[in-house]
TrEMBL record:
GO terms for cellular component: plasma membrane. PANTHER family: DUDULIN-RELATED, F420-DEPENDENT NADP REDUCTASE. It holds the Pfam family F420_oxidored. Residues 28-119 form the Pyrroline-5-carboxylate reductase catalytic N-terminal domain. Keywords: Oxidoreductase. One of its GO terms (biological process) is NADPH regeneration. The lineage of its organism: Bacteria, Bacillati, Actinomycetota, Actinomycetes, Kitasatosporales. The keyword Oxidoreductase applies. The keyword Transmembrane helix does not apply. InterPro entries: NAD(P)-bd_dom_sf, NpdG, P5C_Rdtase_cat_N, STEAP_metalloreductase. This is Pyrroline-5-carboxylate reductase catalytic N-terminal domain-containing protein. One of its GO terms (molecular function) is coenzyme F420 binding.
Amino acid sequence: MTSQDAAASAKPAPKDPWELPDVSGLVVGVLGGTGDQGRGLAYRLARGGQQVIIGSRAAERAETAAAELGLGIRGLDNAGCARESDIVIVAVPWDGHAKTLTALRTELAGKLVVDCVNPLGFDKQGAYALVPEEGSAAQQAAALLPDSRVTAAFHHLSAVLLQDPEVTEIPTDVMVLGEDRADCETVQALAQRIPGMRGVFAGRLRNAHQVESLVANLISVNRRYKAHAGVRLTDI
C-alpha cells in the first residue's frame, strides 16, 4: 500500500446526511404562538413529544392558547418564552418582525433561532413577495440578532393542516437554511418530529429569499385548487 493509499483509507467515511441529532430533550419556544402558523407548529411539535412554550406579547394570551391546545404546552410572554427555550421559532407577522426581534436581542443571545416568517404583500392580483433591505426575513433576523445562531425553516406549511387534529401526517419537506451545518441538522431533526415531514438542508441564509417568496406561489396554487399544498423534493 502506498502512502497515498494509506492516507485515503484513513479518511472517515462521509456522514450519512440523514443521520440527525436527538432533539427530544430540547425545549422549543414559538414566538407568535397565538397566531395560526405559530399555534399550528406548537401543536404539532408537542403532539410529536416535544416540550413547547408559546410566546406572545401578552402572557395571558399565551396562557389561554396553551390551555386550549393542551399537550403540556406552556404559555409565557415573549421574553419569558425566549429565556426558557433552547430553540426559538419566530412565527410573528412580517410587519412586527424587526420590532419583536430587536426587543428580544438579550433574551435570544446564544439561542438557536428558527425564522419562518414570509415577507409578503397582497393586492387585487393576490400575494406577492417583498424583498427586505437585508435580502430576506432570515437575513434581517441574523442582522438584528448578532449573538444568536439564526436558521430559516418551516415556511411552506399549511396552518390549516397543522392545526387539524384529524390530520395524522403531513407529507411535506421542510427546507432548512443556515450558516452552521450542525444547527441546520438540529432544525432538520426537529422538523422530523412531525410525522410525514422531512427536514432537508437547502443552503446558506443568502438563499432564504427564494424559499420565503415561494409561499406567494403556494397561496396561488391553494386558491386555484382549493388545497393545502406544500413542497416535496424529489430524488433524495
